[in-house]
Write a structure and sequence with these properties.
Number of strands: 7
Largest sheet: 7 strands, mixed
Shape: globular
Helix content: 25-40%
Structural class: alpha/beta
Low-confidence stretches: none
Mean pLDDT: 98
Strand content: 15-25%
Bound molecules: flavin mononucleotide
């Protein structure tokens, strides 16, 4: 069976290069990616690059039109468009929304759509407040059925003591594990 993975990017712009590099490996490994971007990710120009350039790269890489609306993400689960959803990078903002049942972006809609059909949703966090404001949301989501985390750790404890970032090289192994109903361990990296 063809592996189809919904692949959603949120607005942690500093990780886009790293994440796209890993996404290329997923595609090279034969996984078909269905691209989704949050509104922030799809529309914000930053010092890390223009929104248009990242949209073009993601679209070319996946050979597909990017889902950038709530309406576009809604059929994902029920229409069986993908077997799992990977949110990489996942911002503190999106963690907060997911933990509180808020569905007002293409990415949170995609998660809701997958969860209602009991498909796995895998989060690759990247947020400066991971051990601060977002910590409670991570804790709550850890306890939610069908949600899994790409193993994460403190990316710069000395200079950014509350920052957490997933190990993006573990995207594929975390997704594989999640598809078998298991959280890849250890989930907390030192
Ligand atoms: C240059 C820049 C870098 C950012 N990096 C991050 C980040 O690494 N992690 C994060 O949680 N938010 C980051 N943000 C803030 C998010 O982009 C912002 O909260 C946005 O509303 C997220 O929306 P989304 O979760 O729908 O993508 C950054 C914003 C800017 C402008």
């Amino acid at each position: 069976m063809e592996k189809r993975l919904a692949f959603a990017m949120c607005g942690s712009f500093c990780t886009f290069e790293k994440v796209l590099e890993q996404a290329e490996k997923l595609v090279a490994g034969g996984i078909r990616l269905l691209p989704i971007m949050s509104t922030a990710a799809a529309e914000t120009d930053t010092r890390f690059g223009t929104a248009a350039s990242f949209r073009m790269r993601l679209s070319r890489l996946t050979d597909a039109a990017i889902i950038t609306t709530v309406a576009g993400a809604e059929p994902l689960g029920p229409q069986n468009m993908a077997q799992a959803l990977l949110i990489a990078p996942c911002t503190g903002n999106t963690l907060g929304k997911l933990a509180n049942g808020i569905t007002d972006t293409p990415v949170t809609m995609a998660a809701k759509s997958m969860l209602r059909t009991e498909k796995p949703v895998i989060l690759a966090v990247s947020t400066n407040d991971g051990l601060a404001g977002s910590f409670q949301n991570i804790g709550r989501l850890m306890n939610v059925k069908n949600i899994y985390f790409v193993p994460f750790g403190q990316d710069d404890p000395l200079h950014k003591p509350t920052s957490l970032q997933a190990d993006f090289t573990l995207l594929e192994s975390t997704v594989e594990s999640a598809r078998n109903g298991r959280q890849l361990q250890p989930v907390m990296l030192t």
